[in-house]
Design goal:
190 residues, alpha/beta, seven-stranded mixed beta sheet, 7 strands
């Protein structure tokens, strides 16, 4: 198990002793640990996390400096925050990125999910509101789900248009989105 930073200030400098400093963050990594990234999650029961930081309670700017990061991956995390919280997180991402840095965000595609007439309502509910406290069959994530059930609730629904509008309003450029199954992936640069 990697030693979590446990909300200690250290950021990129805090991992420098382990070798070259990754300038990439995987925020809300869950069990999607990626080599070459600083993998961040709010759960302290996951086996592979580099930094335990609850981004709903603490700003990443408390741990990393402005302009220190080249790339931020935020898969399946933004929808777990109320809109106003999500916007604060997205603004923090913008501040963290170096000029020319980029971001990739994956969220459920609310417009597609709601509009799908072939999808049963039970599936729509899970996709729109998250897995909640219902075990999903992944032992490690289910343990995290028991300890942090609020992390598994979706608190806002995003469309490609609403995400683009907010990212551009923050200052991101080259914003584009592509549907990926029942999700969409937005990419943008600073």
């Amino acid at each position: 198990m990697n030693a979590p930073m446990n909300n200690a200030v250290g950021g990129l400098a805090g991992v420098a002793a382990a070798g070259p400093v990754p300038r990439k963050l995987n925020v809300g990594c869950g069990t999607d640990y990626r080599e070459g990234f600083i993998n961040i999650d709010g759960s302290n029961v996951l086996s592979k996390v580099d930094a335990v930081i609850d981004i709903g309670k603490a700003s990443l700017l408390d741990h990393f400096g402005a302009g220190e990061v080249d790339f931020i991956l935020a898969n399946d995390i933004i929808e777990h925050h109320f809109r106003w919280e999500a916007l604060a997180i997205l603004r923090d991402f913008f501040t963290l990125l170096a000029p020319g840095g980029s971001i990739e965000i994956r969220v459920p595609d609310a417009k597609f999910i709601i509009g799908s007439w072939r999808m049963p309502i039970e599936k729509k509910i899970v996709l729109l509101y998250g897995g909640q406290d219902i075990p999903q069959g992944n032992a490690e994530m289910d343990e995290s789900r028991k300890k942090f059930p609020g992390y598994f609730c979706h608190k806002y629904g995003w469309t490609m248009q609403s995400m683009k509008k907010e990212l551009e309003g923050i200052g991101f450029k080259n914003v584009n989105a592509q549907r990926q199954g029942t999700n969409f992936v937005s990419r943008a640069t600073k």
